[in-house]
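Hi U.,

Before I forget, here's the chain from the pilot set. I'm dumping it here mostly so it's searchable later in email.
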Amino acid sequence: MLGEALEYLHRQGLVHRDVKPSNIVFVHGRPKLADIGLLTDTGDVHSIVGTEGYLPPEGPGTPQADVFALGKVLYEAATGLDRRQFPHLPPDLRGWPDTKLVFELNEILLRACVSNASDRYATATEMGDDLELLLGGRSVKRRRSVAKYGGAALRIGSVLTLAGTLIVVAWFSSPSFSGRIPRLESQGT
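Structure:
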């Protein structure tokens, strides 16, 4: 839901610049972004605002910076650890009843909070899609590996098919091939 709010702001050409737990309020059980006085146009670099630990290395002012901050909020909520401890996981995590779910969520958080902005989710919607996948009981890790290795397999398969087709065409086109086809002679009746 917060991802949807961020995506709405971003589509309007705005960024929040200070997504953090104290700027999230619940209204009728739904999370809402607060402190809208920090909203500004995307790319506003004239004023640096935000809270240490939620700011990405490149600073605030972009949709990806808001995604980074949301990832840190989710990290704290899921692990109980301080945002500055990211990407460490709780030492007793293997004993948690939802360990597998936390490891899957961690895949999303690692991408949301990666230092290099070009490796981060491009939009809050993209991050939200992975969160929806996880909430639907599906594996984010599996989808990524299928996308990564499935794409490579598809490219290799295409190259092999093309190579095979070229070999067959070359073989059938060769002058020596025409002499190998038996001629059918009509049998007179």
